[in-house]
Fold these 2 entries.
Entry 1:
Amino acid sequence: MRSETARLEAFSDGVFAIAITLLIIEIHVPAREHAETLGHELLRIWPSYLGYLTSFLTIGVMWINHHYVFELIGRVDRTMLLLNTLLLMMIAFVPFPTAVLAQFIETDGARAAAALYGATLTLTSIAFFAWWRYASTERRLIREEVPDDVVNDITRAYTPGTLLYGGAALIAFLQPWLSAALYLGIAVFYALPLAQWRERLARS
Amino acid sequence: MRSETARLEAFSDGVFAIAITLLIIEIHVPAREHAETLGHELLRIWPSYLGYLTSFLTIGVMWINHHYVFELIGRVDRTMLLLNTLLLMMIAFVPFPTAVLAQFIETDGARAAAALYGATLTLTSIAFFAWWRYASTERRLIREEVPDDVVNDITRAYTPGTLLYGGAALIAFLQPWLSAALYLGIAVFYALPLAQWRERLARS
Amino acid sequence: MRSETARLEAFSDGVFAIAITLLIIEIHVPAREHAETLGHELLRIWPSYLGYLTSFLTIGVMWINHHYVFELIGRVDRTMLLLNTLLLMMIAFVPFPTAVLAQFIETDGARAAAALYGATLTLTSIAFFAWWRYASTERRLIREEVPDDVVNDITRAYTPGTLLYGGAALIAFLQPWLSAALYLGIAVFYALPLAQWRERLARS
Amino acid sequence: MRSETARLEAFSDGVFAIAITLLIIEIHVPAREHAETLGHELLRIWPSYLGYLTSFLTIGVMWINHHYVFELIGRVDRTMLLLNTLLLMMIAFVPFPTAVLAQFIETDGARAAAALYGATLTLTSIAFFAWWRYASTERRLIREEVPDDVVNDITRAYTPGTLLYGGAALIAFLQPWLSAALYLGIAVFYALPLAQWRERLARS
């Protein structure tokens, strides 16, 4: 028998690992008739590669964060199990808008595709925030030895994420390309080891 | 060498995590020709989103239950391995009826689709019940320190699940939409932290 | 740092769990035009359900065996890593012949499909045997505390598997249906808790 | 709470296991109309089988190496998390070029397909090298008890991999078949228990 938190953590890690690896099956092998111009065809689908990169970094960063805050959790209850399931449901959903965005960014469907992608990440980041607020409010599920400062810092660090994604989703209706660039930019920004910068953003 | 139950639990967790994450690959990216009306097209496939939500919650709740009762199990034998394999076989099957239901709920195939979905969940819940009955009858595989009350409570709590799913499956032949709504309702009911309500149902 | 055998075991469990769960994606949702006769269409693809059942039980039993013999292994070396990789390569291959068999058992391609399925399981069982022989010859990787009897019993118990699958694969060329029935029969036979019967077969 | 390295290791193992098992879904079941000549059709797609073998061995060997060097790591930092995510992103990408190479090796697209495959493995091996260099430079993340010799040996052993894959990728533009044969040869060479040979290569 493992501890309750260890099992929930392992199950969550499994879903993260599968969702991130499934991203590849949305990049489709060109049809046989492209044989003569395969090199050109493989370059033409560059939005698929960028989409793969963006979503891989995004889910990767979310895993790192999930993993980091989970270490502060001392026990789980039924509500926590539900909130964690909702969060995983959003994470596992990401391959779909990724494929939609890659397929339609160069078409008239770019607005709708970029908005879907942004809406998904906004909901994901709201789910993450709800998860954390439930766990941290009045230190409900937090380990005793974790100082209050750490808890407050995380709460502050989470707020900009939702705003950034929500903003990028709104921009999608005006400038879908800019919006797509922002998704990649946000992922890179959070992936890079720029702890000081992120802190500054959280404080502002 | 991990303990026998720990390994079976980890393997089962793996299958649950993969089955739940695979649900997304049944939501198909719209074809290229929908570029101009992509927004409309993405809304039109709402049954796919609801199907995803329903099955994600359903498998999620089953994982939570599996996980909970597994903590009461002290050892496994060959029969248990077989029953657990059958249960996992049903869980891993769920993405198929989910996709069928989402694709056909708005067509003449709604009855057959809703019945297939209900039949799958009914069988899953029978497999779960058989698993538990084998483990718990005369406390065959139950840890010594688990009180009889806990075992009896679980046995009682499991019965309504099979009846609910069986009933919703029968309703599928008359009112497929009602049946689909029931599947979602049951999943939400079990996912919400309504312990007292579930207990009341189990006692009735 | 986990022990070397624990990590190899966990990685192998992961591949088994994914291969077994991927079986479902080879059962295809009927096309939209079947809406009016969906019930009939869902029954018509029964070979897919039987294929799913057969391969799920087969991989499930192989996982149970892999898991069981791994407990006797005290250390791994480079050759063992290679043999285990080859075994996993065969296990992960099973979804392909399963789908081929389900699709072609009712057509002129039944012979080739049943032979492919049988060849895959025969090779899998040879890979398993090689794995075990390498580990057990002169007790190369066996834990000290495991008695010789246990090692010899396993060696004997493995031999009929290869012969059974090889035989069923040959029958495929004459009677593909009989061959398919044998694959299911073998899986059920090994899955059922019939320890005494299996032992009798191993001794003959 | 597991140790930081144990969780990163388990997450990485998950991605490796899923990527390696997903290789099978790129081997497509022949279409129904091939029923009469199914045996011939199943032989005709031999490049898919060879691609499966090559990529399975390649990812398998990379898992073994990842696993081996991870045992020398005592702690992880934010940069390490990013580098590991990039490495996993390359590993999870492998099923795509594998499918492209299998589909186009016998067509006019062979050059582009073989170059894509080689470019992917070259980038993967650069990602691996960067990962290791970051961890090992001035023993940044290395456990105290690991001798300097072991660290230096690994650094030397990694260099030829990148050169071999880069070379094979360049050959793709002239002789795609030779290049494909080299990918398989390199995988077999590293998979076989030829420790002395690999050491000799590393020293040259």
Entry 2:
Amino acid sequence: MSSKGFMFPRTATGRASLLPDTPWHYSGTMLTLEYRSHPDRVIELLPDYLEPADEDPGAVAVIWAEWQNCRDDYSEILDPARSQYKEAFVVVRCKYQGETYSRCVYIWVDTDYAMVRGHHQGYPKKLGSIWMTRPITVGRAGPRLEVGGRFGASVSAYDHKLLHATFEITGDSDHAGFVNGHPMLHNRWMPAIEGDGSDSLYELVTMRAYEAEVGRCFKGDFELQIFDSPVEELTRLEPIENIAGYWREVSQSWRSGTTMRRRNLDEIE
Amino acid sequence: MSSKGFMFPRTATGRASLLPDTPWHYSGTMLTLEYRSHPDRVIELLPDYLEPADEDPGAVAVIWAEWQNCRDDYSEILDPARSQYKEAFVVVRCKYQGETYSRCVYIWVDTDYAMVRGHHQGYPKKLGSIWMTRPITVGRAGPRLEVGGRFGASVSAYDHKLLHATFEITGDSDHAGFVNGHPMLHNRWMPAIEGDGSDSLYELVTMRAYEAEVGRCFKGDFELQIFDSPVEELTRLEPIENIAGYWREVSQSWRSGTTMRRRNLDEIE
Amino acid sequence: MSSKGFMFPRTATGRASLLPDTPWHYSGTMLTLEYRSHPDRVIELLPDYLEPADEDPGAVAVIWAEWQNCRDDYSEILDPARSQYKEAFVVVRCKYQGETYSRCVYIWVDTDYAMVRGHHQGYPKKLGSIWMTRPITVGRAGPRLEVGGRFGASVSAYDHKLLHATFEITGDSDHAGFVNGHPMLHNRWMPAIEGDGSDSLYELVTMRAYEAEVGRCFKGDFELQIFDSPVEELTRLEPIENIAGYWREVSQSWRSGTTMRRRNLDEIE
Amino acid sequence: MSSKGFMFPRTATGRASLLPDTPWHYSGTMLTLEYRSHPDRVIELLPDYLEPADEDPGAVAVIWAEWQNCRDDYSEILDPARSQYKEAFVVVRCKYQGETYSRCVYIWVDTDYAMVRGHHQGYPKKLGSIWMTRPITVGRAGPRLEVGGRFGASVSAYDHKLLHATFEITGDSDHAGFVNGHPMLHNRWMPAIEGDGSDSLYELVTMRAYEAEVGRCFKGDFELQIFDSPVEELTRLEPIENIAGYWREVSQSWRSGTTMRRRNLDEIE
């Protein structure tokens, strides 16, 4: 019998697959904080066939997102334990064959399907504890979506705090920055089971969402703290200068991407 | 030195107290599902000095709430790991000295401060895993706040599923039902350390929030499933007939309540 | 109907009570790290009717414990989600009416029943993420219970790291230190619902376990790091000098304690 | 610059890699429950180039494991939040080119590194909440490693209970069953980013641990309950007849495996 399922486990029915067939739909909110780090610290994160962006090559975006998501039949929406998750990620830009791309270099999520969905897309996802303040419409326990509204956000993993930020709205915005706005350019890697330093899967892929929709969008000022951990190296991306922060409502759907480059297993980097 | 702190631990500075001084502020969303159970199953949950409500004594409300909350200086809002929590609870009505009250008979939350804050207020809080679908404003991954919007909600504790519900908006509403609308009438109990069956603390208290504000409010149809667990008895409150469901935005502040009755330690029930 | 249950919720059957009737049985392992802090920092944690210990009044024990536990019918043992938990706590000594007692001033646990059981016993329990290395009997992934065996331990709460320690066995021991060896002397507090600064429950209680049994027991050297948090004040108990560390297997049962002092509600401290 | 790291994220230093370089060391305990299901339900889980085992083709092992683990420098052992995890998995047997293999068809773990380490090894790992009773050496709160010792074990995922088992020791054993005793034969799959139904990575790999060591080992009787979930299909592996259960201490190290078969991207299954 041919086993079924978009992702493992592959079974007779496909029901147990960790990921359903695409497309996948997402609705949520994002907090984007852009700053300048040393360009060398961005460049050192790029494989040698990628170049830094022409302008502002040290620009970094740290992004928190809180999502509701579902497969094409919306079944997760009525079982919210399977439809809600949070993530936080760090994006830089790079150039490949003359085009500028966004590239996620670090990311933490809090569910298994979002983690492996990311691996499928080349996001280097780990698990973490992620928090971001929500805007409110009644009462006093939170910020309003208006000038002066103040938000907090944090990430930790294995009980080590990694990031903490505060953000204050200063006005409306018609965009959410420039670092995460290009098509993504990611690697998909799986080391060979032989453990000989080669990769069984080594691809450079690009993708972008479709039907992306933006709701309310604001800009603001922020403060960002980056902490050390024995198994992270975020502090290398030290902030030199804040650019700007953004909060927005956003939705998107995702179906597929394009393989740009694939390495034979015998090829040496 | 006199130790400080609203709640334990009480220390020299009071900073470590599990609860800050009142008032406490809450903003969030609530899903309320009202149904009729056997009146006897409601009555058996009341101490013998409380009577059932005159009308519809078997009415039960199962409520999910997702909160952001803070003390009076709003400090938690910028550290959202300390300001967001969810809870699910079961409310019935009772009468005492001729007045009708609401009374929470079961409740699960997911943070320690919300749990002990509840104990202070006479809510019999346990920990649980609580989920409720959020409405969306962009994209496809969730319901809109409009007729036909569909939500899910669940509670589990110690890996035993306790409740699962679905709700569909059928129209606007100017209220959120009648079961949870009275002042609360709760017991605060602490068994004596001697373990002799007596209580060191035995109070009947009443309270209500102040500055309660209601945002958008909808009514709808629902389906509710109640599951068994070795350490719960929710299935005794078996639904006979659904009344109605409600989804609303809500905020409130809470400062204090009133002790209605206090039992001497020697008194026998 | 008279409602049943050792602890809330009290119901017709008592099955849903967060705590079963005593006795409660515990089997586990404990890592105890004793050090000297400034005596003033210990004294400031004591209500004014308690005195510091005569000797070594600045002595502090930081203790990690990993437990399996059950009620008298052992029912939790076959549902281990309900029988296993970890805790970490800070103990000092004090004197009352000429006797020396141990007193827990800070404590974190990871289940609701252990938290509220602690509240019943006067432990000021909060929730936390607690870890301690386990000894091994086969292979390489951990320490053996022998000289040179090295252990780690940590506590965090609300994504703020609070404590991290390492411990290395230097030899056998026939005891586990002197700070946590006395009967416990705790307060049980519940602020009045009126929020007027008075307490509805204000007791001084003492207790100790019965049928305590000690298995293998070792002493060793340790390093302890204490971190700050917006809602803790552990760093006030700054270590000046390490005394010694201990690792041991231990079991105990607990049934009840004795009320030493009870304050009338009108009494002023 | 050439990016470093066994697994993503690959960086300038390699420190942030979700997995360290092999070898990896494990010490722990395993509970293995073997039963017979319908052979067709085992066969339907195998790709069509794998055959069922010659004897007892419907045999299934459900296994719980609690591990401490570390990389080759033992660094995780002193930060136990990064060294302890639990997993539960379902193993069947199959034949390939005349040899009999074990094959994991379902598995849940509770840390990200163990999950992705499994993906590297072809284990179809998801996240779950996993519990297994621990034996005790002092006191009453658990089983002893002796005849009559009783254990419980459970798995749930997304708040849906999947498995619950009880096990009672009936005697010593010099083995832990036959289903999980062969080299593992796993697939490593990664669907192409194009979402066209093809796989970018499609390998059949085999591996086994080295330096495996077994400590105390017992056999016993068991009861196993399998529950349904919207995103699992474990109930298809319905037990017809129990074979036997085993509890043992075990350690192993893992370095690498061997690729048996690799599919070109254009090949059709």
